Task: inverse folding
């Protein structure tokens, strides 16, 4: 049962998102999220199976004896999660947040497709529109690319140890 469900999630990671794009677009339209900030938020939260994998690896490394001891001491399931399990997941949460932030900052496809309004444009969609309008102005385009890369570089520089520690801790199983 449980192994089959997990296998289905991992098989879902093999399917390119472009294959399911028409169905996803229809769902976003039916939810009246097209051309709103809600569309990419829903897509980024619901369609990334990598975060499930990272959390699963961390949770599988937590001893069941810890859960049992907390329950024997009278801790509720909610208390078990909020006071014991979730604090242990801090490296996984930091890793997921940092990786998602970098992916969101660098994403051009989802904002361009789901938020075509000019006031909703992101830096990457603005740069693409600028590149189309300024055919041949490579110096200006290169400067824009470097400016857009700055947040990603800064995030990586400041959070490098958390990214590496989080990914490594999720990969090691005792």
Result:
């Amino acid at each position: 049962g449980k192994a089959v469900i997990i296998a289905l999630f991992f098989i879902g990671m093999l399917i390119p998102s472009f294959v399911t794009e028409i169905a996803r677009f229809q769902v976003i339209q039916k939810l009246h999220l097209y051309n709103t900030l809600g569309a990419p938020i829903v897509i980024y939260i619901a369609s990334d199976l990598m975060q499930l994998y990272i959390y699963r690896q961390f949770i599988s490394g937590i001893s069941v004896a810890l859960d049992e001891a907390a329950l024997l001491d009278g801790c509720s399931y909610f208390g078990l999660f909020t006071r014991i399990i979730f604090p242990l997941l801090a490296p996984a949460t930091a890793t997921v947040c940092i990786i998602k932030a970098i992916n969101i900052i660098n994403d051009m496809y989802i904002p361009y497709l789901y938020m075509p309004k000019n006031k909703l444009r992101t830096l990457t969609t603005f740069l693409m529109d600028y590149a189309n309008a300024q055919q041949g102005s490579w110096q200006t385009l290169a400067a824009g690319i470097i400016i857009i890369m700055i947040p990603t570089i800064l995030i990586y520089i400041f959070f490098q140890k958390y990214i590496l520690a989080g990914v490594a801790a999720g990969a090691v199983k005792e």
